[in-house]
Design goal:
alpha+beta; seven-stranded mixed β-sheet; 21% strand
Length: 720
């Protein structure tokens, strides 16, 4: 597993000498066909190149997505190799370089799947690619890699297989349909002739790629729906895999940075003398909103930074606090939604969730070398092309003057997506001041925690109406903090549903956070449905199930989760089960949480059962891991994590006050997949939204105490 540098990319012609290269996002260069590229096409940058077969019979698959622990690079390679009939032991992967030709080509496929007619689909794929190239988008996020680019990977593998079959047929003197491909060989059984993919590669390269190659029957899969080890695991275990924070260059200097504590603030003054007098310090760089110390080691840079006393303004936000933000939300929401006059019972409730940091294990880091009118950047990002544009803008360069090498990410969760590249921007400006010496800028954990792009704080005011038999007549909500069709969707047969967004501005930077708006609204809506069920005197599971006749996939997931948890069986005093369901990023996830609450109010989540309908599964072990990880990530948000604002600035500074779930607190998680045959859904994010409401609903079942504001740690759950 490796990263493609510019040198490797330009020199790849030698790699492919005598081999075969198939440009797949090459669909993108022609709406109706694929193109086989010549050996010198890489030097010219004519086509993207996803599949390479060399004479030694190895298959290298170029992946236009980053790896941040989610395993999608391995999953995408599996999809291509499956269709190609490659021997998985002979498959290698590389991450595509940050070049325009590798812009996302199949983003729309994440939403349309394979339902479009072939000619129309190719045109749409082409249009999506042109837009992505125009905007410089090479993003990994929104659970779109496997469910979007995966479609293109299947085309790549299927086209390669057909070309190899045709090359073999010509060599054997037979028809292509008399040949079979398996384990990187093509065989003609009748004549007992066989050749490796490597043997056939050069001849295959001369054959026009089929526009619409047939896909394999899923019942014949030998790679997909299994659990081959991920490519990124061995180098992570042995320490050979370099992250952005690990990167070094000869003669490199290090920068530590202090930023205006109130977002939007500016540097007023700083005396650089105390830092410049310290050993190893090369320069103190003053920026509009920050000051940085550049030294011959990060420790010396950070120590010298601590000797400074910079003065910043607060941009007029010094009086802002979490309390004032939520007070503005409360005022904006106004009265609860009106309910029908014929209602026998009306239920109303307010819910709120705080800002949250992404809290990646690897803080932000970026290395930049500016030499004249050229720059090289090394960083771990979720969108290398947009990060390249950010660096170019900071330096006053055109994008073609900047080369970015994307490195392994120690977690992303949305923090390293476009419009969140402040660390690339600041590192570039520091390096410009130190040109031509390369500089690695490392954010401390404290800087990372206090200068993020946070999951939006949000508040929601719900109301619901029940008739005399306990059937829901209407449900409505006013919400502040954002919402969209997916996050607001209720799969319940409630005839009157109304949702209304309200705005109340503040200065806190916001960004995409794992599952985006679904994490807030998953808690809001599934908490309120639970309250409606109890108000109706119904079992919360049965209440939901009986309202899902129009959504059988939701119903199947809900029923399966309840079965997994043995819903309805007796529990000891102080224990309870809660259930919740949410669809996000094309996948439906139902979860049951089993909690125990001590008389002193300490909550222990013992078990979480998750039933997942993501259409189909590529790598089973990775799929399970993504749901397990989403559960633990969501539990941190539900139980202990929060970002609060005091005097305009973030109050938390590290993991001691922005807490996370630890191993000792992690529940047993059981995951089951429903193979519905629907189009592929995501897995990186959908495990998060149901966790918080499942847990708080379980707390209510155990204690009779309803938690409407997160995190749970702020509530007194002790009982007499």
């Amino acid at each position: 597993m490796g990263k493609w540098t510019r040198r490797a990319f330009i020199g790849a012609g030698s790699l492919v000498g005598g081999g075969f290269v198939l440009g797949v996002a090459g669909v993108a260069f022609s709406p109706g066909r694929h193109s086989v590229v010549s050996a010198d096409a890489i030097d010219k940058g004519e086509l993207t190149t996803w599949i390479t077969v060399t004479p030694d019979n190895f298959v290298t698959i170029l992946i236009p997505h980053c790896e941040m622990g989610q395993g999608s690079q391995t999953g995408l390679a599996m999809m291509a190799a499956e269709e190609m009939e490659a021997d998985w032991e002979l498959v290698r992967i590389q991450e595509a370089p940050a070049l325009d030709a590798y812009a996302n080509a199949y983003m729309l496929r994440a939403f349309t799947g394979e339902s479009m007619p072939a000619p129309l689909g190719r045109a749409i794929d082409y249009g999506a690619y042109r837009l992505a190239r125009w905007f410089g988008t090479q993003a990994t996020g929104g659970s779109m890699a496997v469910r979007g680019t995966g479609y293109g990977m299947r085309i790549a593998g299927a086209a390669a297989r057909e070309m190899l079959l045709m090359a073999a047929a010509e060599r054997f003197g037979v028809r292509p349909d008399e040949c079979t491909a398996a384990r990187s060989h093509v065989t003609h059984e009748a004549s007992r002739q066989s050749a490796t993919f490597g043997d056939l590669a050069k001849a295959a390269a001369a054959i026009p790629a089929p526009s619409n190659p047939p896909f394999k029957d899923p019942d014949t899969y030998t790679i997909r729906r299994t659990s081959p080890p991920r490519f990124d695991i061995p180098p992570k275990v042995n320490g050979s895999l370099g992250y952005g924070i690990d990167f070094t260059l000869p003669g490199m200097l290090y920068a530590a940075v202090d930023i205006a504590p109130v977002q939007g603030g500016r540097l007023v003054s700083v005396d650089p003398a105390p830092a410049k007098a310290m050993p190893g310090v090369h320069e103190v760089v003053e920026l509009e909103e920050a000051v940085a110390v550049v030294a011959d080691s990060y420790w010396r840079a950070r120590k010298a930074l601590a000797a400074l006393s910079p003065v910043y303004d607060d941009a007029g936000h010094g009086d802002v606090s979490s309390e004032t933000i939520f007070a503005a939300f409360d005022e904006a929401l106004g009265a609860a939604p009106e309910m029908p006059a014929e209602a026998a019972k009306v239920v109303a409730a307010d819910y709120r969730v705080p800002f949250l940091a992404h809290a990646t294990m690897e803080p932000m880091a970026c290395t930049v070398r500016v030499d004249g009118d050229r720059a090289d950047v090394w960083a771990g990002t979720q969108d290398p092309l947009n990060a390249r544009s950010t660096a170019a803008s900071a330096l006053g360069f055109d994008t073609d003057q900047v080369h970015l090498t994307n490195l392994m990410l120690g977690g992303g969760y949305g923090r390293r997506l476009p419009f969140s590249f402040d660390y690339v921007d600041i590192a570039s400006r520091i390096a410009k001041a130190m040109s031509p010496t390369p500089v690695k800028m490392v954010w401390s954990r404290e800087t990372d925690m206090q200068h993020g792009y946070y999951r939006p704080a949000a508040m929601c005011r719900y109301a619901g109406a029940l008739d005399a038999e306990g059937r829901p007549l209407a449900v409505g909500a006013h919400y502040a903090g954002g919402g969209d069709g997916e996050s607001l969707f209720l799969p319940y047969a409630i005839p009157d549903q109304r949702f209304d967004g309200r705005s109340a501005s503040h200065h806190v930077r916001e960004g995409a956070w794992r599952s985006v708006l679904n994490s807030q609204h998953g808690f809001f809506k599934e908490s309120f449905i639970d309250e409606l069920a109890h108000a109706a005197g119904r079992d919360p599971y049965e209440f939901r199930r009986d309202l899902m006749d129009e959504h059988p996939r939701f119903r199947a997931a809900l029923v399966r989760a309840a079965e997994m948890a043995d819903w309805g069986s007796p529990l000891p005093e102080g224990e309870g089960r809660g259930i919740a369901i949410a669809e996000s990023f094309g996948s439906i996830v139902a979860q049951v949480a089993h909690v125990a609450v001590s008389p002193e109010g300490k909550v222990r989540v013992r078990n979480v059962y998750a039933a997942v309908d993501c259409g189909d599964v590529v790598n089973v072990d990775s799929a399970v891991a993504q749901i397990e990880g989403g559960v633990v990530f969501g539990l941190s948000a539900a139980m202990v994590a929060e970002i609060t604002i005091d005097q305009g600035r973030v109050a938390q500074s590290n993991f001691h006050d922005h807490e996370m779930i630890r191993i000792a607190d992690a529940p047993h998680v059981e995951v089951d997949f429903i193979h519905s045959g629907e189009r592929l859904g995501g897995l990186g994010e959908p495990g998060v939204p149901p966790v918080a409401p499942a847990v708080t609903n379980a707390i209510y079942a155990a204690t009779g105490i309803r938690v409407r504001n997160l995190p749970i740690k702020n509530h007194d759950l002790s009982r007499a």
